[in-house]
């Protein structure tokens, strides 16, 4: 049923945001720390697990893929409800500060990309066997593959299945 | 007749927003295909149209929510608000392989710390160049350049004036707008075409709305990777700005 997918998504979001709040409190920050990221990881694991157990029929999946497809329209609505006028009120200093920050951060992307690749190349091998999630991780990768994902060199290409 | 139509649109505001955004997307994709021959992605045009509408909405009403402050378009605020946005971002993670995330994990964490630091330093440097000298103002503007949520958090905890906090919010807003607009243009030059660089990108930029929109306009497949790291950024910034970074600024100035 469609609602099962929506409910799974909603459950992950609620637990993730709650965990992010708790994490923020523990760190003494007045902010949610990675709540959405935690929820995404939960959905990856739970979704992968249920897929392996054949508990994700297409109707259930469509409850998640619908919201996935609504993503760009929602972002457009978000853009239309930003406080753009206030940003312009901030004037030159706000514009310059953010422009410098953005350009510097852009410039760092290729640098970090190269840097990380070397250090990560030695990482995964010793890490893979002992971690517990590895059990559910491997089959979920297989499941994703069998459902039409690009099989590819791990670090290069986008591997979400095309819908 | 017209009045009752307006009343209905105001009453069914979320549904009206669906229709409005759908129409905006249709026109944007049409412009993308006919006028730019697909060179500028339709979603990039739609996002810029959204920002332009938000600007005029803000000027028109003097409110803080762009076009959503006009009661006719109030549904946009709900549709593009935090709740549905987060739900949709999380939904993009479905079907992602954990392996991809683990492989970029360490670079993602490095990117997070470096991203907060670089934005903060950029903000402090520009504020200094504009004549600010006291550590509280410098830190608050630097924190605002991290994201528009970190600015007020840091400013409130170290006692900045409300004008400085407003300025820091403006810097953060500009950052998210610039990331939305510049990402699709810069993507090719910075190698933003795979999950790994998307995670690094999300960690460096941090503004969830900017990263989410920028990647959506570049390649929607990359959205979950960038969004994943970006959501840790604001928390990290809120942690570092009023503490370590403030102490650092105080030591220097």
Low-confidence stretches of chain B: none
Number of strands of chain A: 0
Summed over residues and divided by their number, the pLDDT of chain B gives a mean of 84
SSE order of chain B, one letter for each helix or strand: HHHHHHHHHHHHH
Rounded to the nearest angstrom, the radius of gyration of chain B is: 20 Å
Indicate the percent of residues in helices of chain A.
over 70%
Shape of chain A: extended
Number of helices of chain B: 13
| Amino- and carboxy-terminal Cα gap of chain A | 19 Å
Largest interface: A-B, 100 and 122 residues
Q: Which class do the helix and strand fractions of chain A yield?
A: mainly alpha
The rough form of chain B would be described as globular
Terminal residue distance of chain B: 65 Å
Strand content of chain A: under 5%
- Mind telling me the C-alpha Rg of chain A? 20 Å
Q: How many helical stretches of chain A? A: 8
Number of domains of chain B: 2
Number of domains of chain A: 2
Give the helix/strand class of chain B.
mainly alpha
Largest sheet of chain B: none
- The quaternary structure here is heterodimer
């Amino acid at each position: 049923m469609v609602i099962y997918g929506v409910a799974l998504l909603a459950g992950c979001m609620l637990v993730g945001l709650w965990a992010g709040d708790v994490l923020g409190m523990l760190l003494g920050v007045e902010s949610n720390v990675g709540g959405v990221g935690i929820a995404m990881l939960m959905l990856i694991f739970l979704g992968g697990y249920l897929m392996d157990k054949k508990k994700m029929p297409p109707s259930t999946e469509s409850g998640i893929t619908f919201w996935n497809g609504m993503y760009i329209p929602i972002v457009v609505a978000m853009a239309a409800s930003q406080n753009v006028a206030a940003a312009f009120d901030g004037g030159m200093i706000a514009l310059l500060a953010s422009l410098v920050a953005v350009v510097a951060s852009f410039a760092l992307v290729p640098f970090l990309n190269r840097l990380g690749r070397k250090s990560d190349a030695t990482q995964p091998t010793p890490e893979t066997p002992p971690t517990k999630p590895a059990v559910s991780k491997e089959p979920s990768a297989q499941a994703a593959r069998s459902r039409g994902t690009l099989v590819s060199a791990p670090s290069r290409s986008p591997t979400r299945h095309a819908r | 007749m017209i009045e009752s139509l307006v009343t209905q649109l105001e009453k069914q505001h979320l549904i009206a927003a669906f229709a409005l955004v759908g129409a905006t997307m249709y026109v944007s994709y049409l412009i993308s295909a006919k006028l730019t021959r697909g060179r500028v992605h339709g979603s990039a045009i739609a996002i810029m149209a959204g920002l332009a509408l938000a600007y005029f909405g803000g000027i028109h009403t003097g409110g803080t929510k762009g076009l959503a402050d006009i009661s006719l378009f109030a549904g946009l605020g709900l549709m593009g608000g935090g709740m549905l946005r987060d739900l949709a971002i999380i939904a993009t993670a479905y079907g992602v392989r954990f392996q991809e995330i683990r492989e970029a994990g360490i670079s993602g964490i490095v990117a997070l710390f470096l991203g907060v630091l670089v934005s903060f330093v950029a903000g402090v440097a520009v504020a200094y160049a504009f004549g600010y000298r006291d550590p509280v103002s410098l830190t608050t503007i630097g924190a605002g350049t991290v994201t528009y949520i970190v600015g007020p958090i840091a400013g409130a905890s170290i006692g900045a004036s409300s004008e400085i906090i407003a300025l820091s919010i403006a810097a953060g807003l500009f950052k998210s707008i610039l990331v939305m607009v510049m990402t699709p243009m810069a993507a090719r030059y910075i190698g933003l075409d795979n999950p790994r660089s998307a995670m690094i990108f999300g960690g460096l930029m941090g503004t969830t709305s900017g990263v989410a929109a920028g990647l959506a306009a570049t390649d929607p497949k990359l959205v979950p990777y960038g969004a994943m790291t970006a959501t840790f950024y604001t928390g990290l910034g809120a942690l570092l700005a009023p503490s370590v970074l403030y102490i650092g600024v105080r030591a220097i100035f």
